[in-house]
Design a protein that fits this description.
This is E3 ubiquitin-protein ligase HERC2. This protein has 16 helices and 26 strands. It has about 625 residues and is an alpha+beta fold. Among the domains are: about 100 residues, no CATH class; about 100 residues, Sandwich (Jelly Rolls); about 210 residues, Methylamine Dehydrogenase, Chain H. The N and C termini lie far apart (about 80 Å).
């Protein structure tokens, strides 16, 4: 009827908007919902005390505990114990790092207890945690009468009647956007209802009037800033503005909660709630706003936005052009792979793939078919037969599938060859392979967790580092006799694992790691190269900054002393480096007005005990090439 009669369509739309507004204003339903409870210590906390507490939330089927990122107490000396309602210990938390507090804590029932003890050792900021109740929203409605249920505002009614294609009036669209934004923030709605609300809001914001909204202005303004002469936008400045302001932090918290769960294999995919949140943020262009400028925390979101927009362009073809950033990146890679004579081809020929009228859908289908049928044709690292040969000691299976403890002649390794790696690197009785799609495989001796696959067991076949399978790794570094490794991602982040003696893993301690762990202090530094020595590590950033850490004996770290460094410490500038068992060599370029000279800097070599960088003066003045 609505499609045939515009008046009916307007009437149904008004009913839907009014119903959503009533749902958002239903204070009584909101009061029936169990609310989160916050517990915390003093900041900083007091020495030599024992504190206890209890949290009970009626109506909750279970409780979820989330800790504040600022939590910091002395490890083992000042523990916080979380118990269920019967007094059974569920979790113990202490430490200085966020990883000590991050794991999820869930408790069955509606009650938990906690106990905190501190001694006279060095204290810290303390702790704070929020207890979230988990309850079934529909449970309370089942106890009500039919009259009471029918008298309450209902999202189900709107889900059955709303048709966004009938929304043409700017005023009604403004009210609809505001009511959807209000309902999206109601925690007592059923999850399926909130998901529907978010999907409708996303569709409304990315079509029609929604496209004309200034998202940056909405996120920066307050209700008092609303222009009085634009009632459509004034309505948005209320609930819609508050939703958009909270969206970056909500999205980031949800990502940080789900990412380790997906990477660890507990869940195969991200939740539908996270998917619709990230899609809404992408459609609104959140990646181009100042709120997402921190590359270390938002690099994943920028990758998603790029992939989403490219997919949309390839799907809709001529109506949506390819993103400019994507085209520039493709052009850069084409030039890097082309021969010198091909670089000077005509510009229009080099960009034909960007024109949907030339490179059509059937061409995309042919490419995908080609990649799936013959992936080896797309691996650029291979020449000749592409067979990997291995020989030497193989007591721990470090040759990756070659049989025999001592292999005296070069022998084909089928398992490694099948991976088509772009990098092979070996440590002490270990071998690592990096593939074209950014995956890392390990084989060999597992002592100290040096393989990064979890545990200390040795493996004789190439095994995927599952904790890195969702990270694109472009390089792995390990010393030829090394017991620890570094991995560099495409986003410039550095991961380390293996033996942690001397602090060479860079995590602020000397503990070993049996799985790759990101070095937090290097996040956002855009690292471009990594290297490992026997007891120390080094990296170079895009800005030419050199960071070293680990064992400092003989001045090998280049900081002017022989002190060990448990975390990366800036030591100068460099464009290339190499670590050895007892030293680090680095080369840096010095530009002058008329020409460029290359200077060689040596730090802490075997026969040279130099605490700081030392210039080889007999090379000074030699032009670089």
């Amino acid at each position: 009827m609505a499609r045939a009669n515009s008046q009916v369509a307007e009437m149904l739309l008004e009913i839907c908007v009014t119903e959503l507004e009533d749902v958002a204003a239903d204070v009584k339903s909101h009061q029936l919902v169990p609310q989160p409870v916050v517990q915390e210590s003093s900041h900083p906390y007091t020495d030599d005390v024992t504190l206890t507490g209890q949290v009970r939330i009626p109506g909750a089927e279970s409780l979820q505990v989330e800790f504040d990122r600022q939590c910091s107490t002395e490890r083992r000396h000042d523990p916080l114990t979380i118990m269920d309602g019967t007094g059974r210990t569920v979790a113990n938390r202490s430490g200085r790092e966020w990883s000590d507090w991050a794991p999820e804590v869930r408790i069955s029932g509606n009650e938990l207890r906690w106990k905190f003890s501190s001694d006279g050792s060095v204290n810290g900021w303390g702790w704070r945690f929020t207890v979230y109740p988990i309850a079934v929203p529909a449970g309370q409605r089942e106890a009500l009468s039919d009259r009471a249920v029918l008298s309450q505002p209902s999202v189900e009614l709107v889900m059955s009647l709303l048709d966004l294609r009938s929304c043409t009036d700017r005023t009604i669209i403004s009210r609809l956007a505001a009511s959807l934004a209000s309902c999206a923030q109601l925690s007592y709605l059923d999850p399926s209802q909130r998901m529907w609300v978010l999907h409708q809001l996303r569709q409304l914001m990315t079509t029609g009037v929604g496209k004309s909204l200034n998202v940056l202005e909405l996120m920066a303004s307050s209700p008092s800033d609303s222009p009085t002469d634009q009632p459509v936008f004034a309505a948005h400045h209320g609930p819609l503005g508050s939703l958009l302001k909270a969206l970056p932090e909500t999205l980031l918290r949800q990502y940080e909660y789900e990412d380790p769960i997906v990477r660890g294999g507990k869940h195969l995919m991200h939740s539908d709630f996270f998917k619709v949140l990230v899609a809404l943020a992408c459609d609104l262009g959140l990646d181009s706003l100042p709120c997402s400028s921190d590359n270390s925390r938002w690099a994943w979101f920028r990758r998603y936005c790029m992939a989403s927009r490219v997919a949309t362009s390839l799907t809709r073809r001529s109506s949506v052009p390819l993103p400019t950033g994507y085209c520039l990146e493709v052009e850069r890679r084409i030039r890097a792979l082309s021969d010198a004579e091909d670089v000077h081809q005509e510009e229009e020929e080099a960009t034909d793939h960007e024109d949907h009228s030339i490179f059509k859908l059937e061409h995309d289908e042919q490419l995908i078919h080609w990649v799936n049928r013959r992936p080896e044709d797309w691996t650029l690292s291979w020449g000749g037969s592409g067979t990997i040969l291995g020989w030497g000691h193989n007591h721990r299976g470090q040759l990756g599938g070659v049989e025999g403890a001592k292999v005296k002649l070069p022998t084909a390794c089928e398992a490694l060859t099948a991976l088509h790696p772009v990098q092979l690197v070996g440590g002490e009785q270990t071998l690592f392979a990096v593939t074209l799609d950014g995956k890392v495989y390990a084989t060999g001796y597992g002592a100290g967790g040096r393989l990064g696959i979890g545990g200390t067991d040795s493996v004789s076949t190439t095994t995927l580092l599952e904790s890195l399978q969702h990270v694109f790794i472009k390089k792995v570094a390990v010393n030829s006799g090394g017991k620890h490794c570094l991995a560099l991602s495409a986003d410039g982040e550095v991961y380390s694992w293996g033996e942690g003696d001397d602090g060479k893993l860079g995590h602020g301690n000397k503990s070993s790691c049996d799985r790759p762990r990101v070095i937090e202090i290097l996040r956002g530094k855009e690292v471009v190269d990594i290297a490992c020595g026997g007891a120390h590590s080094a990296c170079i950033t895009a800005a030419g900054e050199l960071y070293t850490w680990g064992k400092g004996r003989y001045g090998r770290l280049g900081h002017g002393d022989s002190e060990d460094q448990l975390r990366p410490k800036k030591g100068g500038s460099s464009v290339w480096m190499a670590c050895a068992l007892r030293g680090v060599w680095q080369w840096r370029c010095s530009d002058t007005v008329h020409h460029r000279r290359r200077l060689c800097v040596v730090v802490g070599g075997r026969g040279l005990r130099q605490a700081g960088p030392w210039r080889l003066r007999w090379l000074q003045g030699t032009p670089s090439h």
